[in-house]
Amino acid sequence: MSQATQSSGQASAKALVAIDLGAESCRVSLLRWRNGEPDIELLHRVPNGPEDRHGHLHWPLDRILDGIEDGLRKAAAAAPEGIRSIAVDGWAVDYVRLNPQGEPLHAPFCYRDERTVAAKAWAEKRIAPEELFAINGAQPLRINTVYQLIADNQAGIEARVPWLLLPEYILHTLGGRAVAEYTNATHTGLVDLESGNWSESIFKRLGLSIEAAPPIVPSGAILGKLTGPLAELPAFRDTLLIAPACHDTASAIAAVTADLSHTAYLVSGTWSLVGTVIDRPIATPEAESAGFTNQGEAAGGFCFHTNINGMWIIKQCLDHWRHHGRNIELPSLIAQAEKVAEIPGILNVDAPSLMLAGNMPERINSELALLGLPPIADIPGNEPVFARLIFSSLAARYATTIANLAQITGRSFRQITILGGGSRNTLLSRLTQEATGLPVTAGEAEGSTLGNFAVQLAALEAENGQPISAAAIRNWADLLTARLTLNVIAISTASG
Questions:
Q1: What is the pLDDT of residue 85?
Q2: Active-site residue 279, yes or no?
Q3: How buried is 346 (Cβ within 10 angstroms: 0-12 exposed, 13-18 middle, 19+ buried)?
Q4: Measured between alpha carbons, how far is 286 from 486 in angstroms, rounded to an integer?
């Protein structure tokens, strides 16, 4: 009998809440125990997306916070037995800068904002990208926190103004101490690969203030208890605040029950993340040139993967078509794309223009022209051709990436597990299997929420705040996956 199975009875007295911040929606889910069996319900969904404010992309922080409060109130009403803990995961690199009163200076910037173009060019004159990679093991992407902080400096924001990454900021507003959780901190580009702490060298050489950065804590750290008006609700008496694997990819990986030593993961959402879990980082020139990065894993290891453009491309197409009165839903578009027999060729999904917002069909045709390929007329009826092109191009990119992954790690992969919303895309799964020659299995679409709960449970059973182990996380992930009741993960669609 597993440790998690033995502990499930002890955990059954109170419920748990997982908050998952997504670039398209933020979700509040509740885990309750019914006759000793776990039951997860998605209680509340908050629409999200970057907004253009005065020529810059920002996240609607006030709307996110209000929506989370609504979701937590629903959780309190749904769990009269009380709520034992709350944890928050979300996308990486973005943060909130705080004034002396601990309030946001402004709405947080979205990582897609182009202000970091100049910041990255400035930084590369002071630390060469290959040297930076050797220190932090993180692919020097324009979106990284390090370049955003430099952009703040260039905009006149004092370097010593404190900042918190978004999931940790949410926990802080609920009453938790100010921290940076390990998996999330590694995405900033500011962590020393060997020590796991902030790199004094990077901060100093790039004119940043290490005093503005919060202390780094491990996954599963208990940050305090819920305070404020919500704490007055009976269900929230003595509710603990936990930093899970605050980066949503690390949370999703924590929910994988397959043997990752021979499994490649593909987290398919706004971004596609393709990689595997390793014990020791790989920061070789070969890894850097192939686009791989070393990011924290919940038990202290590393998620070794590369960022590839993802469902962002098709979402931008859908937004464009809806704006012009062509209302198309993704499931029906996927079904129609299955029937498309011919596409112009294979697109470079990582082309810089395809990372940007606005008129995606036109951007796609511009990229096709650069490749010497014929365009697709952006007219009603051709939407499935665009979709098939996007999915086929993603699958081709995945195949190249997994071949590079096998060469760099020295591993032979036996299967691919797709996580995230893209796991429901049967066409993308089939095309990926055909392109890679490997069987593809679909994980949970809401894997980040499952992993969030698994880390919470492992943290709650740890004695005297001891670090949580990979085995404990895996035990809880196994139990949640094997014994979860059917009305779970993404089946409840209440949006309040």
A1: 98
A2: no
A3: middle
A4: 44
Whose tokens are 């009998």? That residue is 1
Per-residue pLDDT, 489: 38
> Three-state DSSP class for 226?
coil
Question: What DSSP string describes 21-76?
Answer: E-SSEEEEEEEEEETTEEEEEEEEEEE---EEETTEEE--HHHHHHHHHHHHHHHH
| pLDDT at residue 484, rounded to an integer | 63
Place of tokens 């803990």: 85
Query: From CA 154, how far away is CA 118, in angstroms rounded?
Result: 9
pLDDT for 462:
87
CB burial of 169-206 (b: ≥16 within 10 Å; e: otherwise) equals: bbbbbbbbbbbbbbbbbbbbbbbebeeeebbeebbeeb
Among the CATH numbers 3.30.470.30, 3.30.300.30, 3.30.420.40, 3.20.20.70, which is that of 256-443? 3.30.420.40
* Total count of residues recorded for the chain: 496
DSSP string, 243-300: E-S-BHHHHHHHT--S-TTSEEEEEESSEEEEEEEESS----HHHHHTTEEEEE-TTS
Out of 89, 94, 248, 378, the active site residue is 248
Regarding the domain with residue range 3-248+465-483, which homologous superfamily does it belong to in the CATH classification? ATPase, nucleotide binding domain (3.30.420.40)
pLDDT (0 to 100) of residue 9: 44
Token pair belonging to 387: 């979709």
Cα–Cα distance for residue pair 479/179, rounded to 1 Å: 30
Task: State the pLDDT at residue 258.
Answer: 76
Give every CB contact of residue 346 below 8 A, 6+ residues apart in sequence.
392, 393, 396
Say how far apart CA 339 and CA 385 lie, in whole Å: 9
Cα angle for residues 275, 276, 281 (degrees, 5° grid) = 100
Give the residue from 162, 169, 168 showing the smallest Cα distance to 182.
168
Query: For position 305, what pLDDT does the model report?
Result: 94
User: Which residues of the chain carry a pLDDT beneath 50?
Assistant: 1-12, 485-496
Retrieve residue 407's tokens: 């060469």
Position 377 scores a pLDDT of: 97
3-state secondary structure of 413: coil
> What is the number of H-type helices and E-type strands within the chain?
17, 18
CA 333 to chain centre: 25
Integer Cα distance of 113 and 121 in angstroms: 15
Sign of CA dihedral 232, 235, 237, 241: negative
Contacts of 429 (CB under 8 A, 6+ apart): 418, 423, 440, 442
Q: Where are the domains of the chain?
A: 3-248+465-483, 256-443
**Are 223 and 176 in contact, with CB atoms under 8 Å apart?**
yes
* Predicted model pTM: 0.85
